Amino acid sequence: MVQKAIRLGGRRSAARPLGNPTRGTTNPNRMRRVDRWLTGPQAWRLRPGTTGAPPIAVDLGYGASPRTAVELFERLRASESLVQVIGIEIEPDRVTQAKPLEQPGLEFRVGGFEIPTEKNPTIIRAFNVLRQYEEADVPAIWDTLRSRLAPNGVVVEGTCDEIGRRSSWVGITNDGPTTLSISLRFGDFALPSEVAERLPKALIHRNIPGERVHGFLEAADRAWLAAAPLASFGNRQRWISMCKTLRTAGWPVLDGVSRWRLGELTVDWSCVAPRTGGLALADDADPAA
């Protein structure tokens, strides 16, 4: 039995990591889409601050294989040579197995949502971790993670399929959730809304009429279908047209063609936030209305 409420609130042993073990399944290159976002629009966060201290990135709940943590290290190092990556797992055996892969700038530790690092990390990547929890647990988990962020840091919490072709994530800063990103492999979907089965826990049960995320995915589908004549020029051009149509219609679409051409689309959290519950907006007006 998963003891979410007990582990996330109330009293616990200081030596006991906060959270529950994941299934641990993972595959090489599974996180490439979110890592591409971290080394793209979010790369500025990795620059050393005024103290010159190396930025820290955490791969939380990397699973039975440390491969995705190693890949995160390699990708972030290509963007910022001083970054330090710490893979954190709640299962001690998984950490023991990962230890031989440690090298300067990469290490593995036992821990959970409390993030056992001496300095606050700039990036916390928690992917395919919250799927086992209840939606009601999400606000407390997000608050715990963002409380550990360095200034200008970001938590990226999301989900992807087994081989990383369909992915979505929420960007969470010190002030709370700010963005939702979806990223799909061209040729692997008929409609953008097929990403719904890989939405983050905060949204996956909200894809129903009347909820913002449902309206957003419906609008994306309509824009994608309207751009069908561009299919002869490739799905990349069709996706770019979809993004432009959404922006023109008033949806708070971020970034530009350089990101859209990757099959990526990021919007402001306000247009997808749940209407009720701990992550609802104080103002229930439709941002895209």
From TrEMBL:
Residues 1-29 are annotated as: Disordered. This is Class I SAM-dependent methyltransferase.
